[in-house]
Amino acid sequence: SHPREGISIEFKITEVSGRKMHFTDEIGDNYSVPVRSLSPAIRTLSNHKTMNLKMPPDWLVIERFNGDELFWGNANPDKLLPQRIKHMKSRLGNIVMAGYGNYDVAAPGSRVIAAFCEQRITPTWTCWRLNIEDDRAAKITTLYLNSTFALATLLDCSIEVRGSVRKWRKPDLQSLPVIDPNKLSSAECDALLAVFEEVADEEFPSLSEQWSDGNEVRNRIDSAIAKVALKPENPAAIRLLRRAVAERIRGWKDMMEA
Asked: Which of 75, 109, 112 is nearest to 96 (CA)?
């Protein structure tokens, strides 16, 4: 895994050189793994600050190599390997979405609901994955999922674990209203893609802190979505929706801190 804030990592990537990826463990011992033996992965969206996964944060071992016993945690890696490869292939996608496992929407590290990765990636069971063949459509979907419109609906249908800790089930996500890029004009698609590229690498504050009028990233996302989803646009309605989402997250946060 690549080192990042708030995530406990057993093997930290220190360098990628040629055909090798170099790691160090918790006591400082160093290891090298052939890049061909690894597949891109992600453990969690917590503490991920942008909605663009430029580089996979984690890697899954999918092939045997000399000295690999330490990485398997299993007495019989050869038996485990076919199951792991099958699982990896079934979970590959280009959008990772929070909420398969517990997701605390009021936690400081909860910043984005979904992230796009141009390189297909396998999430753990903390996350949902979507695989949309057309990357342009995937980017538009990611933009929408991080909008206030999507978040308001997701909060409505979320399952409470405790307070602000929520999760989403497949039937609810399957019925989630989304923007269908195939029903947009070329100009509308281009406009949404332009906004995605503008904000994709911008760092989001925590969800509980995104609701001021001065939050430029959220303003740009919501404005872009509103242009195609609300005709005519209704800035007052957007402000009311934001206020409702903010109050709900704030209420859950207060409940957790009480």
From this structure: 112
Pairing state of beta strands 38-42 and 114-123? parallel
- What's the alpha-carbon Rg for the chain, to the nearest Å? 20
The secondary structure of 98-109 as a DSSP string is E-SS-EETTSTT
| Each residue's pLDDT tens digit, 86-139 | 989 999 999 999 999 999 999 999 999 999 999 999 999 999 999 999 999 999
Peptide bond into 232 cis (omega under 30): yes
Cα of 56 vs its chain's centroid, Å: 11
136-194 confidence digits (pLDDT tens): 999 999 999 999 999 999 999 999 999 999 999 999 999 999 999 999 999 999 999 99
Q: Provide the token pair at 150.
A: 């999507």
Residue 215 CA to its chain's centroid (Å): 20
Q: Is the CA virtual torsion 85, 83, 86, 40 positive or negative?
A: negative
Q: What is the DSSP track for 58-102?
A: EEEE-S--TT-GGGT-SS-HHHHHHHHHHHHHHH-EEEEEE-SS-
Cα gap 148→61, rounded to integer Å: 37
Q: Please classify residue 205 by burial: count the beta carbons closer than 10 Å to its beta carbon, then call 0-12 exposed, 13-18 middle and 19+ buried.
A: middle
Indicate the DSSP class of residue 217.
H
Please give the C-alpha separations between residue 15 and each of 20, 21, 22, 36, 254, in angstroms, as whole numbers: 8, 6, 5, 15, 42
Closest CA to 56 of 133, 124, 2: 2
Q: How many CB atoms lie within 10 A of CB 124?
A: 16
